[in-house]
Amino acid sequence: MQDQIISNLQNILQRIEAACICSNRSPDEVRLLLATKTVPANRIKQALEAGSTLIAENKVQELKEKYDDLKEISHTNHFIGHLQTNKIKDILKYDVSCIQSLDRIDLAEKLQQRLEAEGRTIEVFIQVNTSGEESKFGVHPEKVLELIKRVSELNALKIKGLMTIGLFSAETEKVRTCFRLLKELQQQIISHNIPRVEMNELSMGMSGDLETAVEEGATIVRVGTAIFGQRIYPDSYYWNEDKV
Ligand SMILES: *Cc1c(COP(=O)(O)O)cnc(C)c1O
């Protein structure tokens, strides 16, 4: 079991490196994030001990359950799931340094209130729905700029970039369209020179499409299945509003 995780990790790092070489990028421009939903703490621990440093959960409940088991091993926690406003207080207890799934102003404002009360700040990515699929969260591409302008006025939130989940399709070129759109939005936002807004990060690409994402400029790829194996829950359990 342990050896499997280690060899899967090596395999993913090689895939990232190969994709970087193909697109004339340096492999250290791309960070691997482990998407750990449904994975028990002891298996996440194996990946951390093998050298991984960046992990992310989709649900506050899972973050909480695994927190004590993982806190001794140095790592960084991001959050990549749909965040309900009534979970804000909870999520801030568990050392999440970045919320990659910020997609609406009411969530941003409630985060600001809570962070201000605690005298803290947090990093955020704006999640964009680049595939047009109803089952995925994220702000509509045409509304991204407006959302970013408003979030930029909330001084406890530090915008670092954009995140998206690409279309699920075996057709690489259709998936590529999503990633290319995210990159274009990034460039557009940069050109507006909005105070306090950094746009260095593009979090895109998963087990099945990370090469395409790296070719289109990903700085973080989020990988679960290809490292930890198949999950027992379908992704709709995490990605559909009525199920969360
Ligand atoms: C589960 C998940 C991933 C990883 O997906 P895999 O196909 O298992 O690699 C990436 N991003 C988000 C937001 C996820 O929920």
From TrEMBL:
Cofactor requirement: pyridoxal 5'-phosphate
PANTHER family assigned: PROLINE SYNTHETASE CO-TRANSCRIBED BACTERIAL HOMOLOG PROTEIN, PYRIDOXAL PHOSPHATE HOMEOSTASIS PROTEIN
N6-(pyridoxal phosphate)lysine PTM positions: K37
The family this protein is said to belong to: Belongs to the pyridoxal phosphate-binding protein YggS/PROSC family.
Protein name, per record: Pyridoxal phosphate homeostasis protein
Gene3D superfamilies xref list: Alanine racemase
Entry-linked SUPFAM superfamilies: PLP-binding barrel (SSF51419)
Function (record text): Pyridoxal 5'-phosphate (PLP)-binding protein, which is involved in PLP homeostasis.
Any GO molecular function: pyridoxal phosphate binding
NCBIfam families found in the cross-reference section: YggS family pyridoxal phosphate-dependent enzyme
Organism: Elizabethkingia bruuniana
HAMAP family reported in the protein's UniProt record: PLP_homeostasis
